[in-house]
Write a structure and sequence with these properties.
Elements (H helix, E strand, L loop, with lengths): L3 E3 L3 H9 L2 H10 L8 H5 L1 H13 E3 L6
Length: 66
């Protein structure tokens, strides 16, 4: 498990910002529970727990400038 500053990824950052509203609305219509809070723990509890701990132990370099 990583501890401290996360290394930023330009590719992932651009991908996260350019996922369109249309794509999200289609997924929301087709997949029940998509985009709802707390669905990650039901779908994959091990991954959800890992992500929760990871986000508490690490921080982005951009958070230092806020």
């Amino acid at each position: 498990m990583k501890l401290g500053i996360r290394k930023p990824s330009l590719k992932r950052s651009i991908s996260a910002r350019t996922t369109g509203k249309l794509k999200r609305s289609i997924k929301k219509a087709l997949i029940p529970g998509y985009g709802k809070k707390g669905m990650g723990i039901l779908k994959d509890p091990k991954k959800a727990l890992y992500n929760k701990i990871y986000s508490k132990l690490t921080f982005s370099i951009f958070n230092l400038f806020k």
